[in-house]
Amino acid sequence: MTTTPITSADLFASALYIHPDGRVRAAERRMAGSDSDAWQIATFHVETDTDVHADHWEMHPEAEEAVCCLAGGVRLYFRPTTPGGTEDMVRLPAGTAVIVPRGRWHRLELDAPSDLMSITLRRGTLLEPRTDACCREGGNSAPHE
Predict the structure, then answer these.
(1) Which of 20, 55, 88, 90 has its CA 20 to 30 A from that of 107?
(2) Could you give the CA distance from residue 33 to residue 95 in angstroms, rounded to a whole number?
(3) Count of Cβ atoms closer than 10 Å to residue 8 Cβ
(4) How far apart, in Å, are the Cα atoms of 124 and each of 34, 35, 37, 40, 53?
(5) What angle do CA 31, 64, 98 make, to 5 degrees?
């Protein structure tokens, strides 16, 4: 068997998939739902809120997600759990992570260009457009500090 290194440039273009039988492979990154039982480890270099689909909510029904900020800074927002509620926000500076609970709608906004890593089981992942007035007008939900 030949062992081929995965370079840092490749990690920003593809993802690692960890299968239940212990196999690990690098392959094309899939952000939408999948029927795979493999966990995905994906890294991203992001420059703008558009790069992190700040205008959409995301939810993983099958597993928790680790969202890691390797460089830069981001804000992770949780959709309100009650009608009329407010979004909860967690600020992630470089070198920090947060665990998104299974089934919890969330989204990201940037404080600065960033390198991010996410680890989750993408099977069943859902995306929904934000419908609040702030998003329709192209703005962010919170002022940048």
Answers:
(1) 20
(2) 27
(3) 9
(4) 6, 7, 10, 13, 18
(5) 95
Residue showing tokens 């939900």 = 141
* Per-residue pLDDT tens digits of the chain, which is 145 residues long: 677 777 766 888 889 999 999 999 888 887 665 668 899 999 999 999 999 989 999 999 999 999 999 999 999 999 998 988 999 999 999 999 999 999 999 999 999 999 999 999 989 999 999 987 555 444 444 433 3
State whether the Cα torsion 58-128-12-71 is positive or negative.
negative
> CB-based contacts of 107: which residues, under 8 Å, 6+ apart?
52, 53, 54, 56, 57, 58, 76, 77, 79, 130
DSSP β-ladder status, 106-121 and 65-78: antiparallel
